[in-house]
Amino acid sequence: MYKYGANTRRKKSKFNLSLVFKILSYIFAVIAIAALVGLIIYILVRGLPHLTGSFLTNTEFERNFETLQTIPTILPATITTLIMIALTIVISLPLGIASAVFLNEYMKPGSKIVKYLRMATDTLTGVPSVVYGMFGAMFFGGVLGLGMGIWTGVFTMAIILLPITIRATEESLKTVPLAFREGSYALGATKQKTIFKIVLPGGMPGIVTSAILGMGRVIGESAAILFTVGTSAQLIAPTLNAPTTNLAGMLVWFSRGGYFEQAAATAAMLLMIVIVLNVASTLVGRRLMKNRGAANS
C-alpha cells in the first residue's frame, strides 16, 4: 500500500514537471515570435516613410543648392548587393554541394579524414567575418591583384558561405534513407546516377536552406565588405573591380554620417529584400519537392 502511494506521488510530480516545461516552452516561443514581429514592425515603421523615389532610383548622390544638403541614394548599393548575391551563390553553392556529396557519399563513414574535414568546417563557421575580410583584402586584393572591388568581396563571401553550405547540405543528405540508394543500385544505376537522381533531390530542402542562409549572410555582411569592397557609396561601380559598397556597408555609412532617417530606410530595404528572397527560395524548394514526389509516383 505504501509503495502504491509513493508511485502515485512520483507519477504526479513527473506530470507536474512536464507541464511546467511545456508552459515554459510556450512562453519562450511566444517571446521569440513577439521579438521577431516587433523588430520587423519597428524597422518597417521607421524606414518605409523615408523610401522615397529619389532615394531609391538616383544613380548618384545629388546636391540641393538651396539647402546645401546632400541628397543620398541607395541605388548603387542595391545593385552591388544583388550582383554579389548572384555571384556568391553561383560560386559557393556548387562547391559546397560537391564537398558535401564527397564527404557523405564517397568517404568512408567514421574515417579520420572525414572527422578532420568536418572539424575544419565547423571551425571555419566560427571564424569572425572581419578575419575573412582581412584575408580577402590581402590575398584576393593584394596577392592576386584584384584590388578593392566586387570580385574581391564575392570571393571572400564565397569562402565565408562554404562551411554553411557544406554542413547544411551534408545534414540534409543524411536524411535520405539508405534503402533508396540500395534500390537504385539494385536496378542497375551507377553511383553517379544515384547521387544525381536520388540523393540530391532527396536533400533538396537542405540545399535550399543553405542558399537562403547564404543570401542572408551576403546581404547582412558589413565587416568583410568594408575590407574587400570598400565604402564608396556615391556611384555605381563601372566594373566589378572598382570600389563600391553594399546595403549593409551603406547602412554603416549613413549611421556614421548622421543620416539616421536614411539609415532606417536602408534597414527596411534590407529587411524586405531578405523576406522576398526567403519566400522565393522556399517556393522554389517546395516546387522541386512536389515535382520529385510526382516523378516518384
Task: Give your account of this protein's structure.
The structure is a single chain. The protein is mainly α. It has two domains: 2-50; 70-296, MetI-like (MetI-like fold). Helices cover 77% and strands 2% of the residues. The chain has twelve helices and two strands. It has helices spanning 2-47, 53-57, 75-106, 112-125, 129-143, 150-174, 178-186, 191-202, 204-220, 223-228, 247-257, 260-296, and strands at residues 62-64, 69-71. It has a two-stranded antiparallel ribbon with strand order 1-2. Strand 1 (62-64) and strand 2 (69-71) form a beta hairpin. Helix 3 runs parallel beside helix 6, helix 5 (129-143) packs across helix 6 (150-174) and helix 11 packs antiparallel against helix 12 (260-296). The termini are far apart.
Q: Which keywords apply here?
A:
297 residues; mainly alpha; MetI-like fold; 2 domains; two-stranded antiparallel ribbon; 12 helices; 2 strands; globular
